[in-house]
């Protein structure tokens, strides 16, 4: 049996149903332009750039699935890949779950990738897939931190917050996407792990709650999440640098 058959085919689920409140007023974040192209299209291309990815499932804003379908049709995308659009939910966790339930049975490996990380390089995507195919049920790309992190006791707004602990920085990692999973493991996590409030912001964290081991592989600085207005400035600069490099 080939590697590909044993691990099943690989799909990428892209949650893109968020509003982008922290980015400020405007269109839903995933539909905003970067270098003239919607962020979501960059993210879809980043996943489809991996030859291992045979299906991309985009999770659209709840009433935005037709618009997102039109958007995919209007942009050039690799033809070896299939594309599917499903409506999302109120939280990221619900949106990812909706995408997972839409996967056909032939998929054995699944990536979950934020539409808000449009510039992740294909080498990072391939490294995550390779680690899952080598037998890890859950793989997370991550970077070490530049800033020291403090744990605080959040208090009344505007008042100084007491520090509770300072975790050793060298042992901390900031996690990115795409996170890669054995499909059955992630589906089980989403079907069984209840998370209160705004839900899980991290799929690997749900797998950890099953007691299943999660491993970290090197992430990439260009896989940063576009969250606040300054991130748009950085993303445009990265794109401009890529264009300049391509020109030579
Ligand atoms: N997401 C989603 N469904 C939701 C909320 C978020 O699919 N109900 C997606 C976002 O579209 C994004 C990813 O999850 O691609 C990461 O979330 P985040 O960066 O927090 O994006 P938003 O929720 O859109 O931003 P904000 O929290 O600032 O509103
Ligand atoms: Mg959010």
TrEMBL record:
Keywords (A to Z) from UniProt: Isoprene biosynthesis, Nucleotidyltransferase, Transferase
Biological pathway: Isoprenoid biosynthesis; isopentenyl diphosphate biosynthesis via DXP pathway; isopentenyl diphosphate from 1-deoxy-D-xylulose 5-phosphate: step 2/6
Assigned EC number: 2.7.7.60
Enzyme class of the recorded protein, top EC level: transferase
Protein family membership: Belongs to the IspD/TarI cytidylyltransferase family. IspD subfamily.
PANTHER family membership: 2-C-METHYL-D-ERYTHRITOL 4-PHOSPHATE CYTIDYLYLTRANSFERASE, CHLOROPLASTIC
Known role: Catalyzes the formation of 4-diphosphocytidyl-2-C-methyl-D-erythritol from CTP and 2-C-methyl-D-erythritol 4-phosphate (MEP).
Protein name per the record: 2-C-methyl-D-erythritol 4-phosphate cytidylyltransferase
């Amino acid at each position: 049996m080939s590697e590909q058959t044993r691990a099943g085919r690989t799909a990428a689920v892209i949650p893109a149903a968020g509003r982008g409140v922290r980015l400020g007023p405007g269109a839903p974040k995933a539909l905003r332009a970067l270098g003239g192209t919607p962020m979501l299209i960059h993210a879809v291309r980043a996943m489809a750039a991996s030859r291992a990815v045979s299906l991309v499932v985009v999770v659209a804003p709840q009433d935005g699935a037709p618009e997102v379908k039109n958007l995919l049709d209007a942009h050039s995308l690799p033809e070896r890949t299939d594309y599917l659009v499903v409506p999302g939910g109120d939280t990221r966790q619900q949106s990812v779950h909706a995408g997972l339930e839409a996967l056909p049975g032939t998929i054995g490996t699944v990536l979950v990738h934020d539409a808000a990380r449009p510039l992740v390089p294909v080498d990072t995507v391939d490294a995550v897939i390779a680690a899952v195919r080598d037998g890890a049920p859950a793989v997370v790309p991550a970077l070490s931190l530049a800033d020291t992190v403090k744990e605080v006791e959040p208090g009344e707004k505007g008042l100084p917050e007491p520090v509770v602990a300072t975790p050793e920085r060298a042992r901390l990692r900031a996690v990115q996407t795409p996170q890669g999973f054995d499909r059955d493991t992630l589906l089980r996590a989403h079907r069984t792990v209840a998370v209160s409030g705004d839900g899980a912001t991290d799929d690997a964290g749900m797998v950890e709650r099953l007691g299943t081991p999660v491993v970290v592989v090197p992430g990439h600085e260009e896989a940063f999440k576009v969250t606040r207005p300054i991130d748009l400035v950085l993303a445009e600069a990265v794109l401009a640098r890529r264009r300049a490099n391509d020109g030579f």
